[in-house]
Amino acid sequence: MAAFSVQIGDLLGTFDDTQMMTDALIASGTEIIKLTPNERLLKIAKESNVTSSGLAVSDEKVLEVYKSNLVAREIPLAQLAKTKDTGSIYYATANDPAFYFKTEKVYIVADGNETSGTLLHVPLVPQKSDGTIILHSHTESDISNFPIEADKLMVLGAAIRCLKGIIGTQIATDEDTELAQGSLAQLQLLEASYDKELQKYLA
């Protein structure tokens, strides 16, 4: 597959602002991850161990939490005391574990205490296979833990963001309203294509 920069160039023509492309691809990819239903992301999810001290998840989209291969139910933090109270109907056991979020960490509860388990998740911000953010994504053609069927959608979203930046420059700096009008027409076409691809992707 061609590098993302080439794909954006195919949509916009000559364009060499690599930082804008990188920022646009990251923003577009992050939006897609947020919109994608959890069940569709499970096949590309990462698996991490959760200890009794919790696991930081501020940059992750949490899909499922397990304790001994049993799916944990999510509880609001305000219900934590009931989950640890043996006299409560909300009491979490090893056979019915629970999990909660606190200070951007996930914790698992069973038999009255925080315990260990497993987390399935994907990065909210698109990453390379080595776990680093795709800071130079415009030269990349693939990213990890991202639905490959959404690559085209991500490129379209990035191209739209780049074109909006171009239009802003044409109006504010170049004061070329005629050129900006042509770009606005192109933007409308790209946005229509994006909406169509998004509906197809989420169907």
Would you give an account of this structure?
By secondary structure, the protein is α+β, with helices and mostly antiparallel strands. Helices cover 41% and strands 20% of the residues. The protein has six helices and nine strands; from the N terminus they run αααβββββαββββαα. The chain has helices spanning 4-12, 18-35, 38-41, 80-83, 151-172, 177-202; strands at 46-50, 55-56, 60-67, 70-71, 73-74, 98-102, 105-110, 113-115, 117-123. The strands form two sheets. Strands 2, 5, 6, 7 and 8 form a five-stranded mixed β-sheet that branches. A hairpin with a 2-residue loop joins strand 6 and strand 7. Helix 5 runs antiparallel to helix 6 (177-202). The two termini are 24 Å apart.
Chart the SSEs and their pairings.
Elements: H1 4-12, H2 18-35, H3 38-41, E1 46-50, E2 55-56, E3 60-67, E4 70-71, E5 73-74, H4 80-83, E6 98-102, E7 105-110, E8 113-115, E9 117-123, H5 151-172, H6 177-202
Helix pairs in contact: 1-5, 2-5, 5-6
Highlighted features:
single chain, 203 residues, 5-stranded mixed β-sheet, 4-stranded antiparallel β-sheet, elongated
Which residues sit in consecutive blocks of at least 5 with pLDDT less than 50?
none
Helix content: 40-55%
Largest sheet: number of strands, sense, barrel closure: 5 strands, mixed
- Report how far the terminal alpha carbons are from each other: 24 Å
Which value, in Å, is the CA radius of gyration? 22 Å
SSE order in H/E notation? HHHEEEEEHEEEEHH
Proportion of residues in extended strands: 15-25%
What general form does the structure show?
A: elongated
